[in-house]
Amino acid sequence: MAGPVCAAAVLILNKKLSGELKNIKDSKQLTAGKREKFYGALSGRTDIVWSVALVSEKIIDKIGIDRATWLAMEKAVLKLEKKPNFLLIDGNRFSSHKLKPKIYNLIVRGDEKVFSIAAASVIAKVTRDRLMTKLSEKYAKYGFWKHKGYGTKEHFKAIRKYGISEVHRNSFLKS
After folding, report:
1. Would the pTM of this model clear 0.70, i.e. be above it?
2. Which parts of the chain have pLDDT scores under 50?
3. Hey, what domains does the chain have and what are their CATH numbers?
């Protein structure tokens, strides 16, 4: 309901991952503390290259959440320091104007099945959560530090009380 959509691209340079990293899974299945721990572990590795891209709530309102998500994914891939030969993408649909059409494979629930997709989900979630926490300094009355901009009862209550902020997605708040 508020804030940008965030996507990450992860490239694994060494297939022999060890230790705690092997336990990375879908970011939605991890606590905030675990996500932060994995984010730190991923950040400290030279054999894992990753990038993050954001697409603003204004663009989301203009082109829709699906296309905005695909755009964020495309931007994240294009920002990678090393270019992958092939992409594994979480989901059942994807569209890109800048990536070669046949260099990707869609995997439904990929963040539960593939390490690089799970790692990307953790990186994107932590990045977005940190951004929403930072935005809560400017928009404290909305409680972004708690719900990170998602559609909770508390968030709806704040919107009814204070109205829509400039970081809210108008397309998500039409009714």
Report:
1. yes
2. none
3. 5-131 (3.30.420.10)
